[in-house]
Amino acid sequence: MSAAKQAVVAAVDRLGDELEALSHRIHAHPELAYQEVHACGWLADFLSRKGFKVETGIAGVETAFRATIDTGDGPTIAILCEYDALPGIGHACGHNVIATSGAGAGAALAMVKAELPRGRVQVIGTPAEEGGGGKVRLIKGGVFEHVDCAMMIHGFDRTLLHQDLLGIVRVTFEFRGQAAHASVDPWVGVNALDACIQTFNAVAMLRQQMRPECRIHGIITNGGAAANIIPEYAAASFYVRAPALDTMWDLYRRVVACAEGAARAAGATLTVTQHDDVYEPLKSSRVLLDLFAANMKTVGLSEGQAIPDRLGSSDIGNVSQVIPAIQPMVAIAPAGTAIHSRAFAEAAVTPMARAGLLAAAKTMAMTTLDLLADPGRVAQAKAEFRGSK
After folding, report:
1. Which of 6, 97, 103, 334 has the highest CB neighbour number within 10 Å of its CB?
2. Cβ distance 271 to 222 under 8 Å?
3. d(CA 309, CA 262)
4. Distance between CA 303 and CA 246 in Å, rounded?
């Protein structure tokens, strides 16, 4: 390990207690998408105290920030943070660890700024990953236009260099019928809930005909007012996921067709609202992954068993479609612990989570150092990115 890498590793170790305390503080105050006022403020303050120039409210997003250290003309490398929580179950996706590992990597690099090669390190706070599309808004706002490469980690029940992420499109169906007394005059009514339920039945049949790596899941958000009233209004929300954008949009159209057919069968009208926060599949940079893998070994991280059938989605996928990017998974919970569960939320503040947080911060800091020290690697990553389009 080079002297510069030894210095950033030592810096993360010195920050260990402070990073763990920050992680626990974010965990204890879960905030939903675009409401992460405290988490954003705490992270921005932490990085400012470590020597970063911090901008908040970037791209018009109140709870987003960009923290920068500049050592001269060279590559711009971004380390991304997420810090929003889930409704009802708090930090069951471990975003407190994601945020503090990213901030820790940046802080460690700032602490050895005099030894850094020329370039810029940016720690970018990206709110609203859990369905709000925060990174999508930052992309549209130009935040990544002058960034050469980006990286972040995600907590998991094992360490994996790469895990596929599906593209996702979200849609709301609203069915409108006609109310009537469910016992006295049921024949007068038009049952919007029937159309809604029939949509679920049609989607269930559609699942038999779709690729196994695709996913469709939904909930009824409004099913009527009372059992003795024919529901005049019903609504459902669906997520449609696939490993490629063309597959995702084709499957989306088939799901919409399910709702349209159900509405016609029930005699109801249908309003379809496709939400703007479309998440794209993750396209990982092999160049960045190779650097990350080498640095993983130096801090004692080893890959667990691959699990190709556990497939989620994230707006880091959108970033990976515009610049070279990676999101390795780092173990912060025992094997078999499901994410988005209360057990995972509890695991996110254990000694195992601290160990994963510090190992991730060290690995990202060293990988950033590699890219600053060798702009040729950055050029390779960008050439690979262009060639994979």
Report:
1. 97
2. no
3. 31
4. 31
CB atoms within 10 A of CB 238: 21
Nearest by Cα to 262 from 201, 204, 205, 219: 201
What's the pTM value of the predicted model, to 2 decimals? 0.90
Per-residue pLDDT of the chain (389 residues; tens, 9 = 90+): 788 899 999 999 999 999 999 999 999 999 999 999 999 999 999 999 999 999 999 999 999 999 999 999 999 999 999 999 999 999 999 999 999 999 999 999 999 999 999 999 999 999 999 989 999 999 999 999 999 999 999 999 999 999 999 999 999 999 999 999 999 999 999 999 999 999 999 999 999 999 999 999 999 999 999 999 999 999 999 999 999 999 999 999 999 999 999 999 999 999 999 998 899 999 999 999 999 999 999 999 999 998 888 889 999 999 999 999 999 999 999 999 999 999 999 999 999 999 999 999 999 999 999 999 999 999 999 999 998 76
Rounded Cα gap, residues 93 and 358, in angstroms: 18
- Give SS3 for 258: helix
Sequence letter at residue 186: P
